[in-house]
Amino acid sequence: AEPGKTTAIIGSTGSGKSTIVNLIPRFYDVTGGELLIDGVNIKDVPQHELRKRIGFVPQKGLLFSGTIESNIKYGNPEMSDEQMKEAAEIAQATEFIEAKPDKYKSEIAQGGANLSIARAIAIDPEIFVFDDSFSALDLKTDSKLRAALATKTKDKTVIIVAQRVSTILNADQIIVLEEGKIVGIGTHQELMKKCDTYSQIALSQLSKEELE
Asked: Strand 54-57 and strand 36-37: pairing?
């Protein structure tokens, strides 16, 4: 997975998608083989340093008690309000925040998916990992968010676990998993031609016209 490129991971439930991405910030460790960032085994990198380099957005938006501001600034309490607001804007969370009487000072209650994404954007990491973070969003918000994110992630490594083919149509490479094994790697067009598992997933979600 290279800087400036998006690598997507797709596969049916239980195929191992979340397991793979949970290894990157070392939520658990690999038991065989090795995982390298810039050629360095991640077991040799101090955990706090590793997690500063990775913006990880979990499947279910994770909120901490406190305000919207403290949640977005969680990874870097020193960040400016401008940075915080830019992150909220990219994450399509501005409308939800501005509607609250205390805006960024409001106590947190809901809005998990967008705020978890804003928190990851705000630390400006080298690597973004989205573990199926877009499936909770409606299609319109999903597409607006990804368009805004593209401007912020031009030179970053982006890894997206997805259920929806529409989220990853334009990924530079898509990895297709089946029962813990890689059964296909390629672009959307390549996989439609050569990977049955992928074309079945794609055709179960979108029409032939939409897929072209």
From this structure: unpaired
Place of tokens 């996989």: 191
pTM for the predicted model, two decimal places:
0.84
Q: Are 122 and 91 in contact (CB under 8 A)?
A: no
Q: Which amino acid is at 27?
A: F
Q: Classify residue 70 by its DSSP letter.
A: H
The bridge status of strand 6-11 relative to strand 157-161 is parallel
- Which residue type, as a one-letter code, is found at position 110? Q
Separation CA 113–CA 192 (nearest Å): 30
- Residue 7 and residue 39: Cα distance in Å, rounded? 18
- Which tokens go with 205? 């979600």
Q: Which helix (H) or strand (E) holds 32?
A: none
Tell me if 89 sits within 8 A of 114, measured CB to CB: no
**DSSP type of residue 44:** G
Measured CA to CA, the distance from residue 92 to residue 144 in angstroms comes to 8
Residues 142-197: tens digit of each pLDDT: 888 888 888 888 899 999 998 888 888 889 999 999 998 999 999 999 999 999 99
Q: How many other C-beta atoms lie within 10 A of the C-beta of residue 161?
A: 27
How far apart (Å, rounded) are the C-alpha atoms in residues 168 and 199? 13
CA 187, chain centre distance (Å): 18
